[in-house]
Write a structure and sequence with these properties.
- With 400 residues, the chain is an alpha+beta fold.
- Helix content is 46%, strand content 12%.
- The radius of gyration is 21 Å and the shape is globular.
- The N and C termini lie far apart (57 Å).
- The structure holds protoporphyrin IX containing FE.
């Protein structure tokens, strides 16, 4: 079947106009073209829950070695970190870095995150309004990662700016990097290399010390990670764990304002907050699009996807698939959620999922305890859109 001739649907993750009504576009894709073809950027997209779920598991067909952003899928990533590896290399590296994300380590962060949240929100009590993202949501995640990495407190703000710049996007950018992001990556890499040297001399109880000391088993011999491998992991954390959590908090601020009845339920019963975070994650995935490169031919719904193709896995659409969720467009903080695909699935399942959940829960509980009601003006929201991340960079709260 020649899919290039039949599409009246237009989906393109770079297009801001498409993004405004993307749930409607995804709905049509799920129903009419579950294997969608975009001629302009020459990618396929899978939008149904089960198809996306299966593709995450089938790493022999759907490879991560060309990156996970549409911008990079044409070529292999030259210096891959764990997210850009396929099994079996991926498993070896993942096992190593996952030591820095044990449940004990994440649970230990709760009191630090609470102190951080209190410190940002307390001074805002009594104000007539504030920007939920620039004055709060965008500040928490980089500080948490700085803390995990063992970055000295007085240097965390400097590093936070590099993290921001690494994620900087030019208007209309369709390449993976730009001069600002490249510059920040180089600065961060140099800084990480300096930290690695210091931790080798004086190990601490931080993630860099854990990685520096870890032994990797390769072809029957064991070795330590190179400085570059550790530094690449630090850069990955900046890319994977900062903007996603900030966008999660932006969706929380916006979605709860749009659904005041649901917000009231949380104020009346804060024990619902952790389920509400799952529902926010399902309802508006902060990272709704993940790319893959096909290593062999694949067919679904009568469409052939040849080896060597770019395929987008639409988590954001899968999470609204009525085949998986009852009344999927309804936002319901009491929904019984068995699974969603916001953190991906299979071998690459988000390493930071527990941390993201913790940050989300502490941030929202702290927000509702101080500000049980807020209003937003839709015209003031500033959307952030990259080909993989979706949400807002500015969400002004108006307090009564
Ligand atoms: C709401 C927040 C977050 C969302 C929506 C999110 C989403 C995702 C998704 C969809 C993947 C899978 C990518 C793929 O299969 O190609 C992933 C992987 C990953 N995430 Fe997250 N993430 C979040 C927060 C975090 C945080 C806080 C960290 C770390 C501090 C983190 C670190 C990672 C890492 C290291 C991977 C790669 C795992 C691997 O390849 O084995 N993420 N994330």
């Amino acid at each position: 079947m020649n899919v290039e001739t039949v599409s009246p649907i237009y989906y393109d993750p770079f297009d801001v106009e498409v993004d405004r009504t993307v749930h409607g576009v995804w709905k049509r894709m799920r129903e009419e073209q579950p294997v969608y073809w975009n001629e302009r950027y020459r990618f396929y997209a899978l939008s149904r829950f089960q198809d996306v779920w299966d593709a995450y598991h089938e790493t022999a067909t759907f490879s991560s070695t060309h990156g996970v952003q549409l911008e990079t899928l044409d070529e292999p990533i030259p210096f891959p970190s764990v997210i850009f590896m396929d099994p079996p290399e991926h498993g070896v590296m993942r096992k190593l870095v996952s030591r820095a994300f044990t449940p004990r380590r994440i649970a230990e962060l709760r009191s630090y995150v609470r102190t951080l949240v209190d410190g940002y929100l307390d001074p805002l009590v009594g104000a007539s309004g504030f920007d939920y993202i620039t004055q709060f949501g965008a500040l928490v995640p980089p500080m948490v990662i700085g803390h995990m990495l063992g970055i000295p407190e007085d240097e965390r703000d400097m590093v936070r700016h590099w993290f921001d710049d690494i994620l900087h996007r030019e208007d209309g950018q369709t390449e993976a990097t730009n001069p600002t992001s490249l510059d920040a990556m180089l600065n961060m890499h140099a800084y990480a290399t300096k930290l690695i040297e210091e931790r080798k001399r004086r190990p601490g109880d931080d993630m860099i010390s854990t990685l520096v000391a870890a032994e990797i088993d390769e072809d029957g011999t064991s070795r330590q990670l190179t400085d570059d491998e550790v530094a690449l992991f630090v850069l990955l954390l900046a890319g994977a764990g900062v903007e996603t959590v900030a966008r999660l908090l932006s969706w929380a601020g916006v979605t709860l304002a749009r659904n005041p009845d649901q917000r009231r339920l949380l104020v009346e019963d804060p024990s619902l907050v952790s389920n509400a975070i799952e529902e926010i994650l399902r309802y508006e995935a902060p990272s709704p699009v993940n790319g893959r490169f096909t290593l062999r031919d694949f067919s679904a719904h009568g469409i052939d996807i040849p080896a060597g193709s770019k395929v987008l896995l639409l988590n954001g659409s899968a999470n609204r698939d009525p085949r998986e969720f009852t009344d999927p467009d309804k936002f319901d903080v009491r929904r019984d959620i068995q699974r969603h695909i916001t953190f991906g699935f299979g071998p690459h399942f988000c390493l930071g999922a527990a941390l993201a959940r913790l940050e989300g829960q502490v941030a929202i509980a702290g927000t509702l305890a101080r500000f049980p009601e807020w209003e937003i003006d839709e015209s003031e929201l500033v959307p952030v859109q990259t080909s993989t991340v979706r949400g807002y960079s500015s969400v002004p709260f108006h307090l009564g």
